[in-house]
Design a protein that fits this description.
This protein is mainly beta and 700 residues long. It is 11% helix and 45% strand.
Length: 700
């Protein structure tokens, strides 16, 4: 049956995730750690709290309370923001298939941290994008008193059907006191957030017992199941619940509760944080002590691409006691780490009279700033006696935005022959946001290669995709007739396909302005040509850019998907990025024309971790809508993704990743080209923020 099969697929994914979670987390749980409520974010039994997870926490789980089963996957994308993707299934019996499906994206934002005398305050929107049936908003306050965690709040929409008080927001305008439908075939819209004549009150408490991992939960809610009673005569349960939550280990949490005296709630979830991921980007052996690398006289011609450092040093010269070199950065590992290793590779061949080292940074042909530091500072920091530190190196470091080209007498250390970078991506996508099909999934293995700076002019790249498994045959055939991504099931039917084959050229107009041009098979579903430009000052947290692509739809019915259907699309966007201070989080916005000709905007957050893991959440709103089988329409496309490095595993190429995405399949609005080269990613090592946050890597 549809729902049972969907649960089986979700169970397989959860089981696979648990293999990592079990190996990457401690054996015992935090005795006072909050746990999820019914629909996925932290809370009590049936009401949310103001609590937030640690940044980067990923959670997936299943819960049930008649008449629904909820499947959810959420990410604490930043310290104050949690994003949850949820599929709610209406069922009459746990053994039956679903009668209806109500997908949605839930958002929770912390407004204030808990203080000694003040509560933690968060605002949340359930089905911020999704079906009206489950939509509701809330303002929650939580305060810890010893072993008790108290929560109280105000609710709108689904959290307000008990209608305890008049809507206090009516003082801001009559819009907020308009009547609000609690059900209907259309999607919930921002214009309906926090509206309604009445609001509800909810409250509860969690008691953390002396038994490790065990807590008791009691709550009183304001959900009277008005839509369910009107739709099929559902017998409303009492508004109170009592239950317990147990976490035998940090990676798992389970709960059970009585809703009134006749309903039972059950929940199980798995969670982990990418900081505990056992693999990381390629690791190196500890560096040799500096005194062992000294050489008495310069021997510049001996410097080459040294295997123990895995570096590409293109040119070097000595000028007034400064050894200068071009350092071509690898796409994995921080710039400071590569600078430090380049220094240890160069120094034995530069003689004892060298006072400083300067590296001109190059990233796939783009020329960034020059980094100059005192040689003795690094020598002291990595000596056996540890007489210095990365901070002392930083104090005397000069980073210049001006690139100095070598003169003709500069020594060429490595001829400009292309070197091949190989990596693999284990790509997994799941969709909890399908009303007509239930949970969908697809798993692929992508092998990719790139030969940069061929003849000093261009980069060549290519990739093949092996489709490992999917259930996309459930997608409505009508989607496949549309020219954007509605035919994803037909691409998945092919065992092996050409994913990319392209040529690209990059050029820096200055150390702050960079360009690229790319043509060929750009991604699995589109060929074409286009370009990008970015303005990214070294000391600014802001970056601005633009891109334009002429895309041509690929035909999944041809060999390796090489054929073209003849459908053309012009797409382009204006882009802006902001690096959030102290969070390793980038906020971005792009506005323009998407592949279906629709106009709109995409906003998202991306969080990076020291081990190379990345989390991302985004939402796209456009002026066109996709239509589902129930007659509803949505102008939104949204998703979250988690990327985990695999480069530290034996026999796995550096730069390889395990990628998990939760986003809808087969959507045709709000779709962009998955470009093979990103100027923002290439220029990340050129920024002050990257240098400062990763400077300690210079001694690794």
């Amino acid at each position: 049956m549809l729902f049972n099969n969907a649960c089986n697929k979700l169970g397989v994914l959860l089981l696979a995730a648990s293999a990592w979670i079990v190996s990457a987390t401690p054996a015992h749980a935090d005795n006072t750690r909050p746990s999820p409520f019914l629909t996925g974010s932290l809370g009590l039994n049936t009401i949310p709290s103001a609590r937030m997870d640690e940044p980067g926490t990923v959670r997936a789980g299943v819960s049930t309370l008649d008449p629904y089963i909820h499947s959810f996957a959420g990410i604490q994308i930043a310290a104050p923001l949690y994003i949850n993707l949820r599929q709610t299934a209406e069922i009459s019996n746990l053994r039956d298939s679903a009668d209806r499906l109500y997908p949605g994206m839930d958002i929770k934002l912390r407004l204030a941290r808990e203080g000694p005398r003040t509560p933690e305050v968060s605002v949340g929107i359930q089905s911020a994008l999704g079906h009206k049936r489950m939509a509701g908003e809330y303002l929650a306050l939580s305060k810890r008193l010893g072993d008790f965690d108290l929560t109280a709040g105000l609710g709108w929409g689904r959290f307000a059907s008990a209608a305890h008080l008049k809507n206090p927001l009516r003082v801001l305008g009559s819009h907020f006191s308009d009547s609000r439908p609690l059900d209907g075939e259309g999607a919930n819209e921002p214009s309906q957030w926090f509206t309604g004549k009445k609001i509800g009150l909810f409250a509860g408490v969690e008691y953390f017992t002396p038994i490790e991992g065990l807590s008791l939960k009691f709550d009183y809610g304001a959900d009277e199941y008005t839509a369910e009673h009107a739709a099929f005569g559902y017998d409303r349960p009492a508004p109170w619940s009592a239950g317990l939550s147990y976490s035998p280990a940090d990676w798992i949490s389970a709960g059970i509760a009585m809703q009134g005296t006749d309903k039972i709630m059950g929940r199980i979830s798995l969670q982990a944080n990418p900081t505990g991921w056992p693999l990381r980007e390629k690791s190196y052996d500890p560096p040799k002590t500096y005194y062992a690398l000294h050489g008495p006289e310069p021997e510049l011609e001996r410097i080459d691409r040294r295997p123990e450092h895995d570096l590409l040093l293109d040119r070097i010269k000595i000028d007034n006691g400064i050894a200068q070199a071009d350092l071509h950065l690898a796409q994995t590992g921080s710039a400071p780490q590569q600078i430090g290793r380049a220094a240890r590779a160069v120094t034995p061949h530069t003689g004892t009279d060298i006072q400083a080292l300067e590296f001109r940074l190059i990233s796939l042909g783009l020329r960034g700033p020059s980094v100059r530091f005192i040689k003795s500072d690094l020598e002291h920091a990595i000596s056996l006696e540890k007489q210095g530190s990365p901070q002392e190196i930083w104090t005397n470091t000069e980073i210049s935005g001006t690139q100095h080209k070598n003169k003709n007498d500069a020594k060429r250390i490595l001829k400009k022959l292309p070197y091949l970078h190989l990596w693999i991506t284990q790509d997994n996508q799941i969709s909890l946001a399908e009303e007509e099909t239930g949970i969908l999934f697809r798993s692929s293995l992508i092998a990719e290669a790139r030969a940069p700076e061929l003849l000093g002019l261009m980069t060549l790249g290519g990739a093949f995709r092996l489709n490992l498994g999917d259930n996309l045959h459930r997608l409505d055939d009508a989607r496949a007739l549309l020219p954007v991504r509605g035919d994803v099931g037909r691409f998945a039917d092919r065992s092996i396909g050409l994913d990319r084959l392209y040529a690209a050229t990059t050029h820096s107009l200055s150390p702050e302005i960079h360009t690229s041009l790319t043509a060929g098979y750009l991604e699995e579903m589109f060929a074409g040509a286009g370009g990008e430009i970015i303005y990214r000052p070294f000391r600014s947290r802001f970056a601005l850019g633009a891109e334009l692509w002429q895309a041509m739809k690929r035909d999944p019915q041809t060999s390796l998907n090489l054929g073209l259907t003849g459908d053309m699309a012009l797409t382009g966007h204006l882009n802006a990025w902001y690096d959030w201070p102290g969070e390793n989080v980038t906020a971005y916005v792009k506005a323009g024309r998407y592949l279906a000709g629709d106009l709109g905007v995409t906003a998202g957050l991306e969080k990076s971790f020291a081990n190379g893991a990345k989390l991302e959440g985004f939402v796209t709103l456009t002026d066109n809508a996709d239509v589902d089988l129930f007659g509803g329409e949505t102008h939104a496309f949204h998703g979250v993704s988690l990327s985990l490095p695999l480069g530290g595993a034996p026999y796995v190429p550096d730069g390889s990743t395990f990628k998990f995405r939760a986003e809808p399949f087969g959507r045709n609005t709000g779709q962009s080209i998955d470009k093979p080269i990103s100027l923002y990613a290439l220029t990340e090592p050129f920024t002050f923020d990257h240098m400062a946050q990763n400077w300690a890597d210079i001694v690794e």
